[in-house]
Model the fold of this input.
Amino acid sequence: MREDKQKLHLESAGRDEQKKPLADRGAFLREQPTALTVYDESLVWRLIEKVIVYENRFTVEFKFGVTVKVKIKI
Done:
């Protein structure tokens, strides 16, 4: 019983550690102005994991797990 309690406690601590980066990004986003009018490189580095460019579309993968696909009209 004691081992089970210890195991549950460790799992809970692990989940809390996983939530912290997401909470930090959320706090950072709340501090940002709602309308971006200029390119902000620090914001890009903080939020975007990678951008994949294809012939007629691109995909943006954010560090918090969201992926956005954008079609390009030429």
Remarks:
- The CA atoms of residues 41 and 47 lie 10 Å apart.
